Amino acid sequence: MYPVSISVKSQRHHSAFTGNRVLVSFSLFELETSEFCNEDYVELRRDGAAGPMIGVYCGTDMPSNITAAHNIWVRFQSSGIGTARGFIADYSMCEF
User: Fold this and answer.
1) Which structural domain, as residue segments, surrounds residue 47?
2) Cα–Cα 20 to 30 A to 23, which of 1, 15, 69, 83?
3) Does the N-terminal peptide bond of residue 3 adopt cis geometry, omega within 30 degrees of 0?
4) What is the pLDDT of residues 43-63, one digit of tens each?
5) What's the alpha-carbon Rg for the chain, to the nearest Å?
6) 10 Å Cβ neighbour count for 77?
């Protein structure tokens, strides 16, 4: 039966070719809402897991298009409590 409540941790690192940047755009964003985005969230950073924070997003406020210099690191965390539709993120490259 769907939707199913599960605990999820997922990390992705996206890199652009030389002379390009990574563009992330969301077409759906519906995660569980929490006061400090510490239950279900999407975290974006430049240049890897230890790089500068772009933002942490949760709830239903869809992030605007995000462009990172050459690399972008994306982490999705779900507590497994409650359900929501999730998110759809599209990754593309654009010229500097």
Assistant:
1) 7-91
2) 83
3) yes
4) 999 988 899 999 999 999 889
5) 14
6) 19
pLDDT in tens, 27-46: 999 999 988 999 899 999 99
CATH number for position 77: 2.60.120.290
Asked if 61 contacts 29 with a C-beta cutoff of 8 angstroms, the reply is: yes
Count of structural domains, the chain: 1
For residue 2, being part of any structural domain is answered with no
Tell me the one-letter amino acid at 66: I
The pLDDT-based confidence of 7 (bands split at 50, 70, 90) is: low
pTM here is: 0.83
